[in-house]
Design a protein that fits this description.
CATH architecture: 3-Layer(aba) Sandwich
Number of helices: 6
CATH topology: Rossmann fold
Shape: globular
Strand order of the largest sheet: 2-3-4-1-5-7-6
Structural class: alpha/beta
Number of domains: 1
Number of strands: 7
Helix content: 25-40%
Radius of gyration: 16 Å
Length: 206
């Protein structure tokens, strides 16, 4: 059950990593392509036998253990274009370095099913990413980009990213979520440099 605590539990815990899945709150957006980051975060918690347990006005979250590291997994409730509000609050409360922040987001320049990880860079035209960079005044965090395909024409981007995955895409989408979770665990277990090489080369799954 979600609840609003008198004191944010994050202030009492000391996570080693922060994982934030981007998306929009509400049933209207639950299954849309733009919410793939949220889906990964939610399934990450479910893979550890839990779900979002705590809630503030700006985000909901929970803690899990990965290879003896404490991981804070969260999703913003501020809507995509204001994602930075939630992420900044989380980072301020944990006092973690921004390099320990993993942001999961959708990437229409990748085919459905492809993931890629990198440290730093621009916003790539993604409004959620732009908001985070603006509020943190830094781009030095980890991005896990999940491909949603590019099956749209001129002027159709917004409608496309806010559309649901088609029935024919569900299996590929679900497989990508599983792959993304394995990638996050690799980053936490091995550190960013080694994990990036394993993930982006595909060697992690060989």
């Amino acid at each position: 059950m979600l609840f609003f605590g008198k004191k944010n539990k994050i202030e009492k815990e000391k996570p080693d990593w922060i994982v934030v899945g981007l998306g929009n709150p509400g049933d209207k957006y639950k299954n849309t392509r733009h919410n793939i980051g949220w889906m990964v975060a939610e399934e990450f918690l479910k893979s550890k036998g839990t779900n979002f347990k705590y809630k503030t006005i700006a985000y909901k979250y929970n803690f899990i253990a990965v290879n003896n590291f404490k991981v804070l997994v969260a999703v913003p409730l501020t809507y995509m274009n204001n994602s930075g509000v939630a992420v900044k609050e989380i980072l301020n409360k944990t006092n973690l370095l921004v390099e320990k922040l993993i942001i999961i987001l959708d990437e229409y320049n990748f085919p459905l099913g492809k993931i890629h990880v990198k440290m730093a860079g621009g916003d790539g035209g993604h409004n959620g990413m732009a908001s985070i960079i603006e509020h943190l005044n830094s781009s030095e965090f980890i991005r896990l980009r999940c491909g949603i395909g590019k099956n749209f024409g001129p002027g159709e981007l917004i409608d496309y990213v806010l559309s649901d995955f088609s029935p024919e895409e569900i299996d590929i989408k679900n497989a990508m979520i599983k792959t993304a979770i394995e990638a996050i665990e690799a980053i936490i277990k091995f550190g960013s440099s080694k994990a990036f090489s394993l993930i982006n080369s595909g060697d992690l799954w060989k």
